[in-house]
Every structure is written in C-alpha cells, then in structure tokens.
Amino acid sequence: MLPPIGVWCMVAQMGGGKMRLWVVSVACLMIASPSHAEDDISGQAETIWSAFHCAALATWMDDSPARERLFGIALREGRKFYKAMQDGRSLPLDLMLSLPSPIVDSSIGVVSPDFSLGQVWTGAVNEARRSIGQKHFASDGSRKIAAASLYEQNDCLLVH
Where is the signal peptide (predicted)? Predict the structure, then answer.
C-alpha cells in the first residue's frame, strides 16, 4: 500500500534546490487540492433540484413567469449535469447521500439528459405537492397561499 500523497510530497520536497522545491510544492498542491469539477457537479445538482422544486411551487401559485424562469434554469443546469454523467462523471458518495433521490436515481445510466430531467421534474412536483399538503388543494386560495409561503421560505427568488 502506498503512503498518502502528503507523505510523497514531503519526501520529494526534502531534496534538490529551490526551483525543484517550488515545482514539487506546486505539483503537490494541485494534486492534493479538491477538484473544482466536483464543486460544479454539486452546485449543478443542487440548482436543478431547487429550481424544479420552486418551479413546481410557482405552478401551484399560478405564477407563469416565475415557473418559466425557474424551469429554464433547471433545464440549463440539468443538461450540463447529465451530459457530464453521460461522459463518465459520477457523483461522490457524500454528494449522493445529500441529494434528493430523483437526482441520484436519474444520474445512474443516463440515456438522455432530457429524460433524466423529466424524472427529476416529476419528483420535484410530487415533493412540492407533499410540502403544500393535501388539505390546501381543496381550494385555489388555500393552495396559492400555502405555495407562496413555501416559495418564500425556500428563497425561490434567489435561485439563479
């Protein structure tokens, strides 16, 4: 078993002149630093879910402009996300455990980004309906008030 990367970097830095020390230090920092690609995947996944969930709430509020804005954001980020999944990227375990199941489930064996996004949209609509509560669907006014309250609580105006 090989020692951790930090041990290799410390050993490599012990020999040679200043230039070698600098080159090895920079290389070790690049290897040991977390990947920005992982941050992109994480941010995209969270944006997809937030945008779809908020778009579903906007639908229940009968707010078409908000729904279209949020749905467009989810599509834009989702197509990038699922394209990365098709190209062989995978979700880190800690991210898989923190994301809603429709995103995780649809990221396995992506056939079509739009098909996967349809699965996530369905999950977000169902989640929004559950969060509003069945009792509020008895009247339009009650449903709109409950959806608007959740829309505000979820900071849907800030989703971009």
Answer: 1-37
